Amino acid sequence: MIERTQNRFGLWPERLTADSTSGSAEMLGWLVHEQGSESHIPVVDKSERDDGTLSRIDFTSDHRRNLYICPAGHELCHYRR
Question: How confident is the model at residue 23 (pLDDT cuts 50, 70, 90)?
Answer without folding.
Answer: low
